[in-house]
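B., you asked whether I could sanity-check this one before it goes into the benchmark set. Here's the sequence:
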Amino acid sequence: MRIWRVAYICIYTEFKNLLNINRFQISFQIQKGTRKRDRMRKRLKRTKGISSCTSPLCTDRSTFSWYEQDLWTYIARFLGGKSLVMLGVTSKWFNSVIMQDCIWKFACLRDLQVPDTGQVSFSWSKLYASAFDGSHSYMLRQQEKHIDWMRIGAFSFDSEVAFLSERMSPPVKIPKQEIIDDILQSCGTCLLREVKTGIWIADLQLVRCPVCDQEKCEGTMQMLDARHIELFLSQGYQDGSWGYELVGSHEIKKRVRGAYGAIFDFKYLTSKITAGVFNYKSWIGKANDFQPKAIIALHAVAVNTNLQENQGILIKYHTMRAGAQGEVVSIRISQQLL
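And here's what the prediction gave me:
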């Protein structure tokens, strides 16, 4: 409107000055002024008004490009894994942008809800796929013994010591015995050393009882199954050279209310971060609820299933190492009714 007002004033002033000349000149000048005004209108139609002005940095729309790497890197932070894959296959340019390791690292940590634990041995895109493609530890071996499974979540080990427990209450004292079976019999807990640090993924497995070598049993048992995030990508696991080893077992020959198992990073055993795991009344469910329940914290995971009348329970602890003398890369705690 301001531009139009200036244009009107200019035309009016010019017309007023022309009143002192003859009619022919006035007529000529009016026609000339009209042509000028028409040209000015055309120019004004191509000019944006104040209400739709653009940034001085983007006045030339012809230079804008949708192929801005920084823009799409930022957009990728809000996309899930499936959407990232779909975007990456649209063109070579998008594939080169989306397959950056930083994008998949952000997506993996975000979806697993864990902090960055440092360097990893595989690309984050492969780690994301192994964590979210529906794979579990019974897909490669012992498939005939597997019934069902449930993803609990992810946690992390900052230290190389794991604290394993079959009791819901926090430990009064930390066991110091070296023989795991002795520790389990006396305390119901044990320490496991040489654990691989980093991100761990926890699942709840439902398997057939023959896997626990108990005769005349056709029932099922639950298993807390935790593994390092890199396990499924490791050559030793894929070729079957790494296997599970029984490291301890414990029988409770009396009625138990629930099948409980927990894994803690020993460094955070008494921390407020894991205090919620020991507050079992807030998550195990009511006495008549026999569905499995689980809880996960930044450095701990636990499961519990309320049991009906029973004569006791057998708890077994299995570990998988990365080679004969390697680090512990997987932990299993199984519970079976006697």
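One thing to flag: The chain has three domains: 2-48, 66-130, 137-337. Otherwise nothing jumped out at me.
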